[in-house]
Amino acid sequence: MPVRHVVLSSLISLAVPAAQAITTPEIAASALSPTCVKYQVVGVCYWLFCSPFGCSVRTSVKVRHFRPDLVVSAYSVTGQNPWAEMSPLSSPLPGIAEAGGDTNPRAIGQHSKVRFKNADAIGFPAGDALANFFAQFGYVCAPSSQPFLPYFLSTLDALAWRSGIPEMFYPEALTPGLREVSKDGDMWGNVYPRAGALSQTHDYKAGAVIAQRAADLVTRSGQSHVYIPLAATSHDGYWPPDPVTEGDSNNHQWQMLVPKKSASCAIFPDGSTTDSYADKLAEDGAYIWTLWRPYKCCPRRGQTFLGSSGG
Q: What is the pLDDT of residue 5?
């Protein structure tokens, strides 16, 4: 075979898209979901306004709502993030981050299986459509995430993500019942160690736990991983969300994008204990969710913030 054909074949093989690819416009449009926003007035903010004629106390409405922060992918084949435009960011690194998928075959009668998935957490691609959508609610809070910013790419965190070191020795990883993604006895997996390997026979549940691990990591500072923390500080009239905590619907929500587009949000586990999740299983082991988080804020009405009431 001529050399140019070999080179062309190699380039084509490196650019193979995920079976259930999704594009940036599709992701941006998916956030136009009123059920995920949960907009509500929760209190009042008090401001001291002063002018040459004296000072007075002014008030403004304090609101709370969710907004999309991150697009989190969990996928089996390294280099095949289903987000088409972002997939090149996680190309395989020869000798460092390659392969993926199941780390061992499952034999007949065996009730456990170790799966491995890559994970990416990238800033939600906000645009004019999202801005116009939020405008209908009135005053809205600014996001803490930057669009398209790769906060976490597991291929760049290969040592910790593929070995589980040092988190496999943390109390959260060694203590049964601590930091688990579970509900009503349906245990999907542990948040720790925040690595790519998980003992789980159900691929959808494995993908969900991996996404939960990535979100848990990214929304905290000072973790032993290669990543950019998504952490914002509060200031007068603005309260960003706390770090993601599993099982708390007031703290975060997930909206599924791949392989099934959903217009609603939920936390994991997102079904009953008898649910087979057959409609959410990806043949190629690739999943994407949007991570929504709650913000609270109020318009500035004076030079000095005096405090606020409500949640």
A: 41
Cross-strand partners of 75: 118, 286
Measured at the alpha carbon of residue 184, what is the angle toward residues 180 and 185, in degrees to the nearest 5? 65
Please report, for the chain, how many H helices and E strands are present, in that order: 7, 13
pTM reported for the whole predicted model: 0.88
- Residue 135 pLDDT: 87
- Domain containing 251 equals 25-308
DSSP class of residue 243 equals P
Bigger pLDDT: 241 vs 104: 241
Q: pLDDT tens digit string along 57-93?
A: 999 999 999 999 999 999 999 999 999 999 999 877 6
Q: Nearest Cα to 200, choosing from 22, 78, 74?
A: 74
| Residue 7 belongs to some domain of the structure | no
Structural domain includes residue 20: no
Percent of the chain at pLDDT > 70 equals: 87
pLDDT in the model for residue 19: 59
Question: Considering only CA atoms, which of 74, 83, 94 is closest in space to residue 154?
Answer: 74
Name which of 132, 152, 124 is nearest 293 in CA terms.
124
Write down the pLDDT at residue 138.
87
Residue with tokens 């703290």: 251
27: tokens are 């992701």
Give a yes or no: residue 106 inside a domain: yes
DSSP string, 273-303: TT---GGG--TTSEEEEEEEEEEEE----SS
Q: Quick one: which of 295, 292, 266, 263 has its CA closest to 34?
A: 263
Examine residue 5 and state whether it is found in any structural domain, yes or no. Answer: no
Domains in the chain: how many in total? 1
Kind of pairing between the strands at 101-102 and 114-116? antiparallel
Q: Measure the CA angle with vertex 50, ends 48 and 51; round to 5°.
A: 160
Taking residue 161's Cβ as centre, other Cβ atoms within 10 Å add up to 28
Instruction: Judge whether 114 and 210 are in contact, CB under 8 Å.
Output: no
3-class SS string, 254-266: EEEEECCCCCCCE
